[in-house]
TrEMBL record:
It comes from Linum trigynum. Its main location: membrane. Residues 1-36 form the T-SNARE coiled-coil homology domain. Keywords: Membrane, Protein transport, Transmembrane, Transmembrane helix, Transport. It holds the Pfam family SNARE. This is t-SNARE coiled-coil homology domain-containing protein.
Length: 75
């Protein structure tokens, strides 16, 4: 009977060790997910800013080429 109790005690210690390791991995994974979420928000913000800047540059080029304020009739 003592041998079975000792074997089960070792098994329980092993399970406890694995659960503790799993908790550490879950906590580090949660931290990584939070960091990834903030990176994603930052990346969307910068992409929107880049698109707006690009649209402004395109608008300036189009206005510069078309020059709607000049008189095209030649008079």
């Amino acid at each position: 009977m003592a041998v079975l109790v000792d074997a089960q005690g070792d098994l329980l210690d092993n399970i406890k060790s694995h659960v503790s390791t799993a908790v550490d991995h879950v906590q580090s994974g949660n931290t990584a997910l939070q960091r990834a979420k903030s990176y994603q928000k930052s990346s969307w913000k910068w992409m929107c800013i880049a698109i707006i800047v690009l649209l402004i540059i395109v608008a300036i080029i189009v206005v510069g080429v078309l020059r709607p304020w000049t008189n095209k009739s030649g008079a």
